[in-house]
User: Fold this.
Amino acid sequence: ERLVGPVHPSKKGAYHDGLDLIDFNVDKAKALLKEAGWEDTNGNGIVDKQIDGETVEMKVRFTYNTGRDRRKNIGLMLKENAKRAGVDIDVQQREWSLYLEENKRREFEIKCIGWVQSPIPDDPKQIWHTDSDTPDGANQVGFGNEESDRIIDQIAVTLDEGERNKLYRRLQEIIYDEQPYVFLYTPLERIMIHKRFDNAKSSVMRPGYDERNFVLKKPAASM
Assistant:
């Protein structure tokens, strides 16, 4: 299921369903590149621009960690479609330890990652607060301003669910306008639970269930 921001769609009220999904539009991408001064001046299919007197082509590195075929396929699909807009994507894999170190040093141009959420209300501070924009922090895209920080701090201390949801939605609006991430989708899963169990509920937390909640139904008493 496609989504527009960092809140899982199952979290009704907190998820901002009023934000439009961004259309796939190659022509608009070309127009935006041209507006920013990027055009294919030599006819090789890649847009370029004069920077400090030198012709620079729009070539971007996409990195993912080894063993993640889904992320690799995302990169290959991006490469194929970006080329239609005149952008050359170089898809590169990295061993996990090197991938972490490069991300920590901010040595990436585009990287593919995924975040797992718990069923409880989110605390956005780890990923979206400027306090987390450090070498060891998870805000590796350098997102944040005074308003977003204030909202995140308020979320942590707001007990009223309705007021907290308003804060979540406003934060999503800021992130949506800035687009520090290209949000793709949240995977859908089917979980089957046998009828002999009581109190077994599914969850957005991987693997999607907590076996400690599985309680066998008491057998019916015979007369």
Q: What stands out?
A: Strands lie at 48-51, 54-57, 59-65, 88-94, 110-111, 197-198, 215-216. The chain has six helices and seven strands.
